[in-house]
Amino acid sequence: MTSTPVETQPVRTDDLGRLLVMSWSREAPQGTVPYILVCPRGDGSNGPEAESAAAARLLAGAGIPPKHELVDATLMPSLPVSLLVLPGAAVLTLPQVTAQFVPPADWLEAVGAHGCAYLIFTTRPWPDAKPGDAGTLTAFASDEATLKSAAHVVLPARSLRN
User: Fold this and answer.
1) Which of 65, 79, 83, 109 has its C-alpha lying 20 to 30 A from 97's C-alpha?
2) Which InterPro entries match (predicted)?
3) Torsion angles phi and psi, residue 14, rounded to 5
């Protein structure tokens, strides 16, 4: 089988601006599901449109372009997106981006139970984000515009082994 290389433009950090990373868990029929939301803040010097385009290039370069289809990374070990879970912390890594965050205890328990987390990385900027406000998080994360402009990934959780 042959493949044609896909050229992607590099992501300029100025264009990407600041990224917001939020983690939470929610009850579902299969148990408590751990989620990670990543989105541009929309407060960069080049504006929200440039941040959205840069986020889309970042996701395309990682092999998870924004579209409303679920990517099961547990079946794709070569995908350059990873989640490392440590006691009391987690690290999300994509090409050109590493984000460390402190998830809540129930999120860590859910990741431990499922062995994975559901990543929603949207290209939709969220300039009026209020970290810690569950109501605004739920409204933004479940909004159709957010979901349609996002990569959706079931991401296996890895840990350090002794």
Assistant:
1) 109
2) DUF5949
3) -60, -40
Answer yes or no: is 119 within a domain. yes
Of 44, 1, 25, nearest to 141 by C-alpha is 25
pTM here is: 0.88
* Residue matched to tokens 């939709």: 124
Domain total in the chain: 1
Q: Are 98 and 132 in contact (CB under 8 A)?
A: no
Check pLDDT > 80 for residue 132. no
Half-sphere exposure of 132 (CA within 13 A, CB side): 1
Full residue range of the structural domain in which residue 128 is found? 15-157
Q: How far is CA 4 from CA 1, 7, 28, 66, in A?
A: 10, 9, 40, 21
* Within-domain flag for 10: no
Cα–Cα distances in Å, from 126 out to 82, 101, 108, 130? 23, 18, 25, 9
